[in-house]
Amino acid sequence: MAPTIGVFDSGFGGLTVLRALLTRIPQAHYAFLGDTARLPYGSKSRRTIAKYAAESAQFLVNQQGAEYLVIACNTASALALDAIQEAVPVPVLGVIQPGAQAARAASRTGDVLVIATDATVQSHAYAAACQALGLRALEKACPLLVPLVEEGWTEDSPRHSVTEQVIGIYLDELLMDAAAAYLQPDTLVLGCTHYPLLRPLIESIVPVGMKVIDSAEATAAQAARLFDQENPGAGAPGPSHLGTRECANVHCFATDSVEKFERLGSRFLGCPTGKVELVDLGG
Amino acid sequence: MAPTIGVFDSGFGGLTVLRALLTRIPQAHYAFLGDTARLPYGSKSRRTIAKYAAESAQFLVNQQGAEYLVIACNTASALALDAIQEAVPVPVLGVIQPGAQAARAASRTGDVLVIATDATVQSHAYAAACQALGLRALEKACPLLVPLVEEGWTEDSPRHSVTEQVIGIYLDELLMDAAAAYLQPDTLVLGCTHYPLLRPLIESIVPVGMKVIDSAEATAAQAARLFDQENPGAGAPGPSHLGTRECANVHCFATDSVEKFERLGSRFLGCPTGKVELVDLGG
Question: What is the pTM of this model?
Answer without folding.
Answer: 0.90
